[in-house]
Amino acid sequence: MKHSVLISTLHNTIGFITLIGVAIVIFTVIFLFTTSQSNEDKKIIKEKVYGLRRKYFWGLTTLLTIGFFTSLVYLPYDKSEKADETIYVLSFQWGWKMAPEPFVSDLNDYNGKNEIDITANENIKFIITSKDVTHSFGIYNDKGELLSQAQAMPGYNNELLYRFEKKGVYKVLCMEYCGIAHAMMIATINVN
User: Is the separation of the CB atoms in 191 and 119 below 8 Å?
Assistant: First the structure.
């Protein structure tokens, strides 16, 4: 008997607290509706906010435009540099052919090699294409650090100008997954 009286009292208390909470919510909603600003006040505030937003937009646009055009001079590619030597690079699944001779009309007949010798401190222009799928021509030093890269795409010649400042052996790796033997797609550049 005591147990049922306790539960009944607990239910009554919870019901009373819920009723008070609902009354507070209803009172708050009615208060907000009756004290909110008229549509005319909202219109004035809206115009002020939109005006301020417009000023910020045009100010930011002006700053970004000025920043864009002033930073163009700092691009890393110097267009005035001329190539001392041009190397044509043909990629295919799963290898590289490199040679100073231009590509022939039938890429299957291109006579390049997997290893080339070049001179240090010369501007080397690589003209890169692909015979089959997209590859990525990545030049790595002996520490495994990526020095430069360019996409090799079928039907398109990409140019990459690079200067090897240190003598040594550099590796060319494909950076675009191109099939099962992708990891075996390695070429060598000997810089003397």
Answer: yes
